[in-house]
Design a protein that fits this description.
heterodimer; A: about 240 residues; mainly alpha; 8 helices; globular; B: about 230 residues; alpha/beta; Rossmann fold; 6-stranded mixed β-sheet; 4-stranded antiparallel β-sheet; 9 helices
Protein backbone atom coordinates (compact mmCIF):
# COMPACT_ATOMS: atom_id res chain seq x y z
CA UNK A 1 0.00 0.00 0.00
CA UNK A 2 1.40 3.39 -0.97
CA UNK A 3 0.49 6.76 0.33
CA UNK A 4 1.03 9.68 -1.99
CA UNK A 5 1.85 13.22 -1.00
CA UNK A 6 -0.65 15.90 -1.79
CA UNK A 7 -0.45 17.81 -5.04
CA UNK A 8 -2.05 20.77 -3.28
CA UNK A 9 0.29 23.30 -1.70
CA UNK A 10 0.85 23.14 2.05
CA UNK A 11 -2.47 24.19 3.52
CA UNK A 12 -2.83 27.58 5.06
CA UNK A 13 -5.44 28.36 7.62
CA UNK A 14 -8.44 29.25 5.54
CA UNK A 15 -9.03 32.33 7.61
CA UNK A 16 -8.97 33.13 11.26
CA UNK A 17 -12.65 32.68 11.95
CA UNK A 18 -13.39 32.26 15.64
CA UNK A 19 -15.71 29.38 16.40
CA UNK A 20 -15.79 28.75 20.15
CA UNK A 21 -18.17 25.90 20.96
CA UNK A 22 -21.52 27.38 22.04
CA UNK A 23 -22.73 26.85 25.58
CA UNK A 24 -25.37 24.26 26.42
CA UNK A 25 -28.08 26.91 26.68
CA UNK A 26 -27.13 28.75 23.50
CA UNK A 27 -27.28 25.49 21.56
CA UNK A 28 -30.55 24.53 23.30
CA UNK A 29 -32.22 27.80 22.35
CA UNK A 30 -30.86 27.59 18.80
CA UNK A 31 -32.73 24.28 18.46
CA UNK A 32 -35.90 25.69 20.04
CA UNK A 33 -35.83 28.73 17.72
CA UNK A 34 -35.28 26.50 14.72
CA UNK A 35 -38.16 24.19 15.65
CA UNK A 36 -40.54 27.07 16.35
CA UNK A 37 -39.60 28.85 13.11
CA UNK A 38 -40.11 25.66 11.07
CA UNK A 39 -43.44 24.95 12.77
CA UNK A 40 -44.60 28.53 12.34
CA UNK A 41 -44.12 28.05 8.59
CA UNK A 42 -45.75 24.67 8.16
CA UNK A 43 -48.17 24.29 11.12
CA UNK A 44 -47.95 20.56 10.39
CA UNK A 45 -47.31 19.35 13.90
CA UNK A 46 -49.53 21.63 15.96
CA UNK A 47 -52.43 21.42 13.51
CA UNK A 48 -52.33 17.61 13.54
CA UNK A 49 -52.21 17.54 17.35
CA UNK A 50 -54.97 20.11 17.62
CA UNK A 51 -57.38 18.48 15.17
CA UNK A 52 -56.79 15.13 16.86
CA UNK A 53 -57.39 16.59 20.33
CA UNK A 54 -60.59 18.35 19.31
CA UNK A 55 -61.89 15.20 17.64
CA UNK A 56 -61.16 13.15 20.75
CA UNK A 57 -62.95 15.51 23.12
CA UNK A 58 -65.93 15.78 20.75
CA UNK A 59 -66.13 11.98 20.44
CA UNK A 60 -65.95 11.60 24.21
CA UNK A 61 -68.59 14.29 24.58
CA UNK A 62 -71.03 12.28 22.51
CA UNK A 63 -69.89 8.87 23.71
CA UNK A 64 -70.23 9.70 27.39
CA UNK A 65 -73.88 10.56 27.63
CA UNK A 66 -73.51 11.21 31.32
CA UNK A 67 -75.19 13.41 33.81
CA UNK A 68 -73.29 16.42 35.15
CA UNK A 69 -72.26 14.70 38.38
CA UNK A 70 -70.77 11.66 36.67
CA UNK A 71 -69.05 13.85 34.08
CA UNK A 72 -67.18 15.64 36.81
CA UNK A 73 -65.47 12.38 37.74
CA UNK A 74 -64.27 11.61 34.21
CA UNK A 75 -63.17 15.08 33.12
CA UNK A 76 -59.56 14.73 34.21
CA UNK A 77 -59.26 11.28 32.63
CA UNK A 78 -60.70 12.41 29.30
CA UNK A 79 -58.49 15.47 29.32
CA UNK A 80 -55.27 13.56 29.98
CA UNK A 81 -56.13 10.76 27.55
CA UNK A 82 -56.53 13.51 24.92
CA UNK A 83 -53.23 15.19 25.85
CA UNK A 84 -51.35 11.89 25.97
CA UNK A 85 -52.50 10.69 22.53
CA UNK A 86 -52.04 14.10 20.91
CA UNK A 87 -48.64 14.43 22.59
CA UNK A 88 -47.55 11.10 21.11
CA UNK A 89 -48.48 12.35 17.64
CA UNK A 90 -46.39 15.46 18.16
CA UNK A 91 -43.41 13.61 19.63
CA UNK A 92 -43.36 11.17 16.72
CA UNK A 93 -43.54 13.94 14.14
CA UNK A 94 -41.00 16.16 15.86
CA UNK A 95 -38.34 13.47 15.85
CA UNK A 96 -39.15 12.04 12.42
CA UNK A 97 -38.50 15.50 10.92
CA UNK A 98 -34.97 15.25 12.27
CA UNK A 99 -34.49 11.64 11.20
CA UNK A 100 -36.02 11.58 7.72
CA UNK A 101 -33.70 14.09 6.11
CA UNK A 102 -30.66 13.17 8.15
CA UNK A 103 -30.94 16.35 10.22
CA UNK A 104 -30.32 14.39 13.41
CA UNK A 105 -26.84 13.68 12.04
CA UNK A 106 -26.48 17.42 11.43
CA UNK A 107 -27.29 18.06 15.09
CA UNK A 108 -24.98 15.28 16.27
CA UNK A 109 -22.13 16.68 14.19
CA UNK A 110 -22.24 20.01 15.99
CA UNK A 111 -19.54 20.45 18.65
CA UNK A 112 -22.05 20.90 21.45
CA UNK A 113 -22.96 18.89 24.51
CA UNK A 114 -25.52 16.41 23.21
CA UNK A 115 -27.77 17.17 26.15
CA UNK A 116 -28.46 20.45 24.33
CA UNK A 117 -30.20 18.41 21.63
CA UNK A 118 -32.37 16.74 24.26
CA UNK A 119 -33.24 19.99 26.03
CA UNK A 120 -33.87 21.79 22.73
CA UNK A 121 -36.19 19.11 21.40
CA UNK A 122 -37.92 18.64 24.78
CA UNK A 123 -38.58 22.38 25.12
CA UNK A 124 -39.94 22.57 21.55
CA UNK A 125 -42.18 19.57 22.18
CA UNK A 126 -43.38 21.15 25.42
CA UNK A 127 -44.14 24.42 23.63
CA UNK A 128 -46.20 22.58 20.97
CA UNK A 129 -48.07 20.62 23.62
CA UNK A 130 -48.81 23.77 25.63
CA UNK A 131 -50.15 25.55 22.54
CA UNK A 132 -52.52 22.64 21.91
CA UNK A 133 -53.55 22.53 25.56
CA UNK A 134 -54.18 26.28 25.59
CA UNK A 135 -56.71 25.82 22.77
CA UNK A 136 -58.20 22.56 24.02
CA UNK A 137 -58.91 23.78 27.57
CA UNK A 138 -61.44 26.52 26.67
CA UNK A 139 -63.09 24.29 24.06
CA UNK A 140 -63.35 21.50 26.61
CA UNK A 141 -64.77 23.94 29.16
CA UNK A 142 -67.52 24.90 26.72
CA UNK A 143 -68.36 21.38 25.60
CA UNK A 144 -68.34 19.81 29.06
CA UNK A 145 -69.66 22.80 30.94
CA UNK A 146 -66.79 22.87 33.40
CA UNK A 147 -64.34 25.65 34.18
CA UNK A 148 -60.83 24.41 33.37
CA UNK A 149 -59.28 27.87 33.06
CA UNK A 150 -57.99 27.95 36.61
CA UNK A 151 -54.46 28.77 37.64
CA UNK A 152 -54.05 25.75 39.94
CA UNK A 153 -55.27 23.38 37.23
CA UNK A 154 -53.05 25.02 34.62
CA UNK A 155 -50.10 24.55 37.00
CA UNK A 156 -50.79 20.82 37.33
CA UNK A 157 -51.21 20.48 33.56
CA UNK A 158 -47.87 22.27 33.09
CA UNK A 159 -46.12 19.90 35.50
CA UNK A 160 -47.69 16.86 33.83
CA UNK A 161 -46.75 18.13 30.38
CA UNK A 162 -43.12 18.70 31.43
CA UNK A 163 -42.86 15.12 32.65
CA UNK A 164 -44.63 13.68 29.62
CA UNK A 165 -42.56 15.59 27.05
CA UNK A 166 -39.24 14.94 28.80
CA UNK A 167 -39.70 11.17 28.87
CA UNK A 168 -41.43 11.32 25.47
CA UNK A 169 -38.53 13.17 23.86
CA UNK A 170 -36.04 10.62 25.17
CA UNK A 171 -38.11 7.65 24.00
CA UNK A 172 -39.02 9.20 20.65
CA UNK A 173 -35.30 9.68 19.99
CA UNK A 174 -34.86 5.96 20.58
CA UNK A 175 -37.88 4.89 18.55
CA UNK A 176 -37.02 7.26 15.66
CA UNK A 177 -34.05 5.04 14.91
CA UNK A 178 -36.30 2.06 14.17
CA UNK A 179 -38.47 1.31 11.15
CA UNK A 180 -41.60 0.91 13.26
CA UNK A 181 -41.29 4.19 15.16
CA UNK A 182 -44.98 5.18 14.90
CA UNK A 183 -46.00 1.91 16.57
CA UNK A 184 -43.04 1.65 18.92
CA UNK A 185 -43.29 5.07 20.57
CA UNK A 186 -46.69 4.61 22.29
CA UNK A 187 -45.73 1.06 23.30
CA UNK A 188 -42.59 2.37 24.98
CA UNK A 189 -43.99 5.66 26.22
CA UNK A 190 -47.29 4.81 27.88
CA UNK A 191 -45.94 2.29 30.43
CA UNK A 192 -43.03 4.60 31.34
CA UNK A 193 -45.25 7.69 31.48
CA UNK A 194 -47.94 5.91 33.49
CA UNK A 195 -46.89 7.48 36.84
CA UNK A 196 -47.01 11.00 35.39
CA UNK A 197 -50.39 10.38 33.73
CA UNK A 198 -51.91 8.83 36.86
CA UNK A 199 -50.56 11.58 39.09
CA UNK A 200 -51.81 14.26 36.68
CA UNK A 201 -55.27 12.70 36.49
CA UNK A 202 -55.41 12.33 40.26
CA UNK A 203 -54.31 15.91 40.89
CA UNK A 204 -56.66 17.35 38.25
CA UNK A 205 -59.59 15.26 39.55
CA UNK A 206 -58.97 16.55 43.05
CA UNK A 207 -58.88 20.16 41.91
CA UNK A 208 -62.03 19.76 39.81
CA UNK A 209 -63.79 18.15 42.78
CA UNK A 210 -63.01 21.25 44.82
CA UNK A 211 -60.06 19.93 46.85
CA UNK A 212 -57.49 22.38 48.11
CA UNK A 213 -53.83 22.14 47.06
CA UNK A 214 -52.97 20.55 50.43
CA UNK A 215 -55.33 17.68 49.61
CA UNK A 216 -53.59 16.81 46.38
CA UNK A 217 -50.02 17.04 47.67
CA UNK A 218 -49.32 13.33 47.11
CA UNK A 219 -49.92 13.30 43.33
CA UNK A 220 -48.41 16.78 43.06
CA UNK A 221 -45.20 15.67 44.77
CA UNK A 222 -45.10 12.58 42.60
CA UNK A 223 -45.36 14.82 39.52
CA UNK A 224 -42.52 17.05 40.68
CA UNK A 225 -40.30 14.08 41.55
CA UNK A 226 -41.10 12.41 38.24
CA UNK A 227 -40.21 15.58 36.32
CA UNK A 228 -36.90 16.00 38.13
CA UNK A 229 -35.95 12.31 37.85
CA UNK A 230 -36.76 12.02 34.17
CA UNK A 231 -35.05 15.24 33.18
CA UNK A 232 -31.96 14.07 35.10
CA UNK A 233 -32.09 10.57 33.57
CA UNK A 234 -32.52 11.96 30.06
CA UNK A 235 -29.64 14.38 30.63
CA UNK A 236 -27.40 11.47 31.63
CA UNK A 237 -28.37 8.89 29.02
CA UNK A 238 -29.16 10.96 25.93
CA UNK A 239 -25.59 10.68 24.65
CA UNK A 240 -25.89 6.87 24.65
CA UNK A 241 -29.36 6.91 23.14
CA UNK A 242 -28.27 8.85 20.07
CA UNK A 243 -25.12 6.85 19.59
CA UNK A 244 -25.16 4.31 16.79
CA UNK B 1 -4.55 15.10 9.46
CA UNK B 2 -6.32 11.72 9.63
CA UNK B 3 -4.66 8.65 11.15
CA UNK B 4 -6.44 5.33 11.41
CA UNK B 5 -4.79 2.18 12.71
CA UNK B 6 -6.23 -1.32 12.83
CA UNK B 7 -9.82 -0.13 12.69
CA UNK B 8 -12.45 -2.78 13.31
CA UNK B 9 -16.19 -2.18 13.24
CA UNK B 10 -18.69 -4.87 14.06
CA UNK B 11 -22.47 -4.73 13.98
CA UNK B 12 -23.48 -7.70 16.11
CA UNK B 13 -21.81 -10.73 14.58
CA UNK B 14 -21.11 -9.00 11.28
CA UNK B 15 -17.69 -7.43 10.84
CA UNK B 16 -17.74 -4.49 8.42
CA UNK B 17 -14.23 -3.09 8.82
CA UNK B 18 -11.42 -5.59 9.43
CA UNK B 19 -8.28 -3.92 10.70
CA UNK B 20 -8.30 -0.96 8.34
CA UNK B 21 -5.24 1.34 8.18
CA UNK B 22 -5.59 4.75 6.59
CA UNK B 23 -3.84 8.09 6.76
CA UNK B 24 -4.35 11.41 5.03
CA UNK B 25 -1.85 14.27 4.95
CA UNK B 26 -3.04 17.87 5.42
CA UNK B 27 -4.47 19.29 2.20
CA UNK B 28 -4.81 15.92 0.51
CA UNK B 29 -8.00 15.04 -1.42
CA UNK B 30 -8.60 11.31 -1.12
CA UNK B 31 -11.26 9.49 -3.11
CA UNK B 32 -12.40 6.39 -1.26
CA UNK B 33 -13.73 3.96 -3.82
CA UNK B 34 -15.28 0.56 -3.48
CA UNK B 35 -18.31 -1.59 -4.22
CA UNK B 36 -21.59 -1.32 -2.32
CA UNK B 37 -21.27 -2.82 1.14
CA UNK B 38 -17.52 -2.38 1.29
CA UNK B 39 -17.85 -0.24 4.43
CA UNK B 40 -17.23 3.24 2.99
CA UNK B 41 -20.16 4.92 4.73
CA UNK B 42 -19.46 3.08 8.00
CA UNK B 43 -15.86 4.26 7.81
CA UNK B 44 -16.88 7.89 7.22
CA UNK B 45 -19.39 7.73 10.07
CA UNK B 46 -16.61 6.62 12.40
CA UNK B 47 -14.33 9.43 11.15
CA UNK B 48 -17.13 11.92 11.73
CA UNK B 49 -17.78 10.62 15.29
CA UNK B 50 -21.32 9.52 14.43
CA UNK B 51 -20.39 5.92 15.13
CA UNK B 52 -17.86 4.31 17.47
CA UNK B 53 -15.21 1.86 16.36
CA UNK B 54 -15.22 -1.60 17.92
CA UNK B 55 -11.41 -1.65 17.97
CA UNK B 56 -8.53 0.44 16.72
CA UNK B 57 -7.21 3.99 16.88
CA UNK B 58 -8.73 6.92 15.05
CA UNK B 59 -7.25 10.42 15.09
CA UNK B 60 -8.72 13.35 13.19
CA UNK B 61 -7.08 16.78 13.21
CA UNK B 62 -4.90 15.72 16.12
CA UNK B 63 -7.76 14.50 18.32
CA UNK B 64 -8.62 10.93 19.22
CA UNK B 65 -12.02 9.37 18.66
CA UNK B 66 -14.27 8.73 20.46
CA UNK B 67 -12.79 10.46 23.53
CA UNK B 68 -12.27 13.90 21.94
CA UNK B 69 -15.30 13.81 19.67
CA UNK B 70 -16.38 17.40 20.36
CA UNK B 71 -12.96 18.75 19.35
CA UNK B 72 -13.03 16.63 16.20
CA UNK B 73 -16.55 17.80 15.30
CA UNK B 74 -15.47 21.44 15.58
CA UNK B 75 -12.88 20.86 12.85
CA UNK B 76 -14.99 18.65 10.63
CA UNK B 77 -17.48 19.31 7.84
CA UNK B 78 -19.63 16.44 6.58
CA UNK B 79 -21.70 16.19 3.41
CA UNK B 80 -23.71 13.06 2.70
CA UNK B 81 -26.26 12.13 0.06
CA UNK B 82 -28.89 13.50 2.47
CA UNK B 83 -28.73 17.30 2.66
CA UNK B 84 -29.19 17.57 6.48
CA UNK B 85 -31.28 20.69 5.86
CA UNK B 86 -34.69 21.73 7.17
CA UNK B 87 -37.16 22.09 4.28
CA UNK B 88 -39.39 24.57 6.12
CA UNK B 89 -36.56 27.01 6.76
CA UNK B 90 -35.00 29.32 4.20
CA UNK B 91 -31.44 28.87 2.99
CA UNK B 92 -30.15 31.60 5.30
CA UNK B 93 -32.18 30.33 8.27
CA UNK B 94 -30.65 26.88 7.82
CA UNK B 95 -27.16 28.36 7.73
CA UNK B 96 -27.93 30.65 10.68
CA UNK B 97 -29.10 27.67 12.73
CA UNK B 98 -26.00 25.62 11.98
CA UNK B 99 -23.85 28.71 12.53
CA UNK B 100 -25.30 29.07 16.01
CA UNK B 101 -24.69 25.39 16.71
CA UNK B 102 -21.01 25.95 15.85
CA UNK B 103 -20.77 29.17 17.87
CA UNK B 104 -19.85 31.36 14.91
CA UNK B 105 -19.35 35.03 15.62
CA UNK B 106 -20.27 37.57 12.89
CA UNK B 107 -22.71 35.01 11.59
CA UNK B 108 -24.51 37.21 9.04
CA UNK B 109 -21.31 38.04 7.17
CA UNK B 110 -20.38 34.37 7.14
CA UNK B 111 -23.80 33.38 5.74
CA UNK B 112 -23.40 35.84 2.88
CA UNK B 113 -19.89 34.57 2.20
CA UNK B 114 -21.00 30.93 2.15
CA UNK B 115 -24.07 31.58 0.00
CA UNK B 116 -21.83 33.35 -2.51
CA UNK B 117 -19.47 30.40 -2.51
CA UNK B 118 -22.24 27.94 -3.36
CA UNK B 119 -23.88 30.41 -5.78
CA UNK B 120 -27.19 30.63 -3.92
CA UNK B 121 -27.10 34.24 -2.78
CA UNK B 122 -30.15 35.16 -4.84
CA UNK B 123 -32.13 32.32 -3.20
CA UNK B 124 -31.20 33.11 0.40
CA UNK B 125 -34.77 33.96 1.44
CA UNK B 126 -36.34 30.96 -0.29
CA UNK B 127 -37.52 27.88 1.55
CA UNK B 128 -35.25 24.89 1.07
CA UNK B 129 -38.23 22.75 0.09
CA UNK B 130 -38.50 24.82 -3.12
CA UNK B 131 -34.88 23.99 -4.08
CA UNK B 132 -33.89 21.41 -6.66
CA UNK B 133 -31.80 18.45 -5.50
CA UNK B 134 -28.66 20.08 -6.92
CA UNK B 135 -29.30 23.36 -5.11
CA UNK B 136 -29.97 21.49 -1.88
CA UNK B 137 -26.70 19.67 -2.24
CA UNK B 138 -24.83 22.93 -2.84
CA UNK B 139 -26.47 24.42 0.24
CA UNK B 140 -25.53 21.25 2.12
CA UNK B 141 -21.91 21.99 1.26
CA UNK B 142 -22.43 25.55 2.48
CA UNK B 143 -23.80 24.14 5.73
CA UNK B 144 -20.78 21.87 6.06
CA UNK B 145 -18.24 24.70 5.57
CA UNK B 146 -20.10 27.33 7.63
CA UNK B 147 -17.63 26.87 10.52
CA UNK B 148 -14.63 26.75 8.21
CA UNK B 149 -13.56 23.16 8.93
CA UNK B 150 -10.08 21.84 8.32
CA UNK B 151 -11.31 18.41 7.28
CA UNK B 152 -14.20 17.67 4.92
CA UNK B 153 -15.88 14.29 4.51
CA UNK B 154 -18.13 13.72 1.49
CA UNK B 155 -20.23 10.57 1.37
CA UNK B 156 -21.55 10.00 -2.15
CA UNK B 157 -22.27 13.71 -2.72
CA UNK B 158 -23.33 13.14 -6.35
CA UNK B 159 -26.18 10.74 -5.57
CA UNK B 160 -29.35 11.81 -7.38
CA UNK B 161 -27.81 14.78 -9.19
CA UNK B 162 -28.26 15.42 -12.90
CA UNK B 163 -25.36 16.36 -15.19
CA UNK B 164 -25.63 20.14 -14.72
CA UNK B 165 -25.98 19.87 -10.96
CA UNK B 166 -23.02 17.50 -10.82
CA UNK B 167 -20.86 19.95 -12.77
CA UNK B 168 -21.82 22.77 -10.43
CA UNK B 169 -21.01 20.56 -7.49
CA UNK B 170 -17.60 19.83 -9.07
CA UNK B 171 -16.83 23.56 -8.97
CA UNK B 172 -17.94 23.87 -5.35
CA UNK B 173 -15.88 20.84 -4.36
CA UNK B 174 -12.84 22.27 -6.13
CA UNK B 175 -13.21 25.56 -4.30
CA UNK B 176 -13.58 23.70 -0.98
CA UNK B 177 -10.42 21.69 -1.64
CA UNK B 178 -8.46 24.63 -3.06
CA UNK B 179 -8.61 26.38 0.30
CA UNK B 180 -6.19 23.81 1.67
CA UNK B 181 -8.74 21.62 3.36
CA UNK B 182 -8.20 17.92 3.77
CA UNK B 183 -10.93 16.05 1.92
CA UNK B 184 -12.07 12.44 1.94
CA UNK B 185 -14.81 11.62 -0.55
CA UNK B 186 -16.55 8.31 -1.20
CA UNK B 187 -17.96 7.88 -4.67
CA UNK B 188 -19.00 5.37 -7.29
CA UNK B 189 -18.31 7.94 -10.01
CA UNK B 190 -14.74 7.12 -11.04
CA UNK B 191 -14.60 9.87 -13.69
CA UNK B 192 -15.46 12.61 -11.19
CA UNK B 193 -13.20 11.12 -8.54
CA UNK B 194 -10.32 11.07 -11.01
CA UNK B 195 -10.85 14.74 -11.85
CA UNK B 196 -11.01 15.94 -8.26
CA UNK B 197 -8.89 13.75 -6.02
CA UNK B 198 -5.14 13.59 -5.52
CA UNK B 199 -5.18 10.05 -4.20
CA UNK B 200 -7.43 7.04 -4.73
CA UNK B 201 -7.93 4.35 -2.12
CA UNK B 202 -9.90 1.22 -2.85
CA UNK B 203 -11.90 -0.13 0.09
CA UNK B 204 -12.84 -3.75 -0.28
CA UNK B 205 -13.91 -6.38 2.24
CA UNK B 206 -13.32 -4.02 5.13
CA UNK B 207 -9.74 -3.01 4.38
CA UNK B 208 -7.91 -0.63 2.04
CA UNK B 209 -7.09 -3.05 -0.75
CA UNK B 210 -4.98 -0.60 -2.78
CA UNK B 211 -3.97 3.00 -3.03
CA UNK B 212 -2.55 5.11 -5.83
CA UNK B 213 -1.66 8.77 -6.23
CA UNK B 214 -2.77 10.93 -9.13
CA UNK B 215 0.76 11.18 -10.46
CA UNK B 216 1.13 7.37 -10.50
CA UNK B 217 -2.24 7.03 -12.14
CA UNK B 218 -0.81 8.48 -15.34
CA UNK B 219 0.66 5.05 -16.10
CA UNK B 220 -2.70 3.32 -15.93
CA UNK B 221 -6.32 4.42 -15.72
CA UNK B 222 -8.50 4.52 -12.64
CA UNK B 223 -11.07 2.02 -13.88
CA UNK B 224 -8.39 -0.58 -14.67
CA UNK B 225 -6.71 0.05 -11.31
CA UNK B 226 -10.06 -0.23 -9.51
CA UNK B 227 -10.98 -3.50 -11.17
CA UNK B 228 -7.53 -4.95 -10.62
CA UNK B 229 -7.63 -3.97 -6.93
CA UNK B 230 -10.99 -5.64 -6.38
CA UNK B 231 -9.91 -8.84 -8.12
CA UNK B 232 -6.63 -9.21 -6.26
Amino acid sequence: MRFARSTYPTPQLIDNMKTPAPSLWKATFAIVRKDLAAEFRSFELVSAMLVFSLLVIIIFNFALELNIEVRKTVNAGVLWATFAFAGTLGLNRSMSVEKDRGCMDGLLLAPVDRSAIFFGKALSNLAFMLVVEAIVLPVYSLLYNVNLLRLDLVGVILLGSIGYTSVGTLLSTMSAQTRTREILLPILLFPVAMPVLLASVKACSGLLAGDAIEDILTPLNLLIVYDVVFIAVAFMVFDYVVEE
Amino acid sequence: MIEVRNLVKRFGLKTILRGLDFSVAPGEFVALLGPNGAGKTTFLRILSSLSRQSLGEVKVAGHSLPNQAAQVRAKLGVVSHLPLLYPDLTAEENLRFYGRMYGIEAIEARITEVLKMVDLENRRKDLVRTFSRGMQQRLAIGRAVIHNPEVMLFDEPYTGLDQDASEMLDDVLRSVAAKGRTVVMTSHDLVRAEELATRFDILSRGVIAASISKSDLAKTNLLAFYKQSLES
